[in-house]
TrEMBL record:
GO terms for biological process: methylation; regulation of signal transduction. Belongs to the methyltransferase superfamily. LCMT family. Gene3D superfamilies: Vaccinia Virus protein VP39 (3.40.50.150). Its main location: cytoplasm. It comes from Salvia splendens (Scarlet sage). GO terms for molecular function: protein C-terminal leucine carboxyl O-methyltransferase activity. Its EC number is 2.1.1.233. This is Leucine carboxyl methyltransferase 1 homolog. It is a peripheral membrane protein. Coiled coil: none annotated. The lineage of its organism: Eukaryota, Viridiplantae, Streptophyta, Embryophyta, Tracheophyta. S-adenosyl-L-methionine binds at R30, G60, D130, L131, E157. It catalyses: [phosphatase 2A protein]-C-terminal L-leucine + S-adenosyl-L-methionine = [phosphatase 2A protein]-C-terminal L-leucine methyl ester + S-adenosyl-L-homocysteine. One of its GO terms (cellular component) is cytoplasm. Involved in brassinosteroid (BR) signaling.
Amino acid sequence: KGYMTDDYIHLFVKRPIRRSPIINRGYFARYSALRKLLYKFLDCKINGEEKCKKQILSLGAGFDTTYFQLQDEGNAPHLYVELDFKEVTSKKAAIIENSSELRGKVGEAALISQEKGEVSGDHYKLLPVDLRDIQQLDDMISLADMDPSLPTFIIAECVLIYLDPESSRSVVSWASRTFSTAAFFLYEQIHPNDAFGQQMIMNLESRGCGLLSLHDTPTLQAKEKLFLDQGWRRAVAWDMLKVYSTFIDAQERSRIERLELFDEFEEWYMMQASIFSLFYLCQITICQKLFLLNIVLHEHYCVTCAINDAMGIFNEFGFPNEEHATGSSTASTTVPSM
Ligand SMILES: C[S@@+](CC[C@H](N)C(=O)[O-])C[C@H]1O[C@@H](n2cnc3c(N)ncnc32)[C@H](O)[C@@H]1O
């Protein structure tokens, strides 16, 4: 649709899925926020040195293609490590092995084992792990040759929320103990208790994806507290409404807002009618309803950015112009332009 460029996704997704513009906008906001923070991380200088070694660790990476895109852009870090269940890494290893394009990106000399679910190149590793097992995590980090002293960007997009709360906390705590100069990008759901949140939980549960940790960290404050309690020095959580309206570049926003009209939500809107019945009865215009839906949807997802900064390179890193680690809500009431 033109929201973003991904020259590799077709290798991982057999049939394109048509999604409503509101969902596409949500994906775009998430992609764009991650990209902006990733580029900032990759640009950070250490002792004035531009080309310093950095690493990215993606927890529950699934079929994400970010590494291949960064390679194409000339932005790939010294080391990029992806972890997931073996069932997933085996499939990803098979796709990489069977594509000359992807094999080239991980390096022709990379060792690929579909059976073990592993890919091991000089700068890219794909390894199987159960994130609930911290010993396994340690083993895989060693196997991947990660250097805990290097600046590390950790990505967990829609992953920790599926673990039980104890396991989620253990992963966050492990990451803090392991990487002294690190940024943690957490993207996941909030607000389970309102009508929209309950519908969101039911939709995911009906697909076998229980949001096991959602009640443990139901708000922006709780997400920040999760990190601060587990040893991170700073943590700021913003909902996607605020991320979209104040963090994503205005030019990008106005570009993607011209891509699709918000004209096809009646069915989805009806699904959510419980929260909007008042508005529905009042017969507000479809445009107004969609505007409200957009707000509600984006208030139920958030990014938490947590920092450990032993090297002192992240002074300016993260969401701007906010007091860090206040523990207070940083949600904004700003609404996106439509
Ligand atoms: C919703 S998908 C998100 C994938 C990817 N992060 C993205 O945003 O496109 C969740 C991923 O987490 C992985 N996952 C869930 N629980 C896990 C666990 N205990 N250990 C390893 N991976 C896990 C799943 O296999 C799946 O690939």
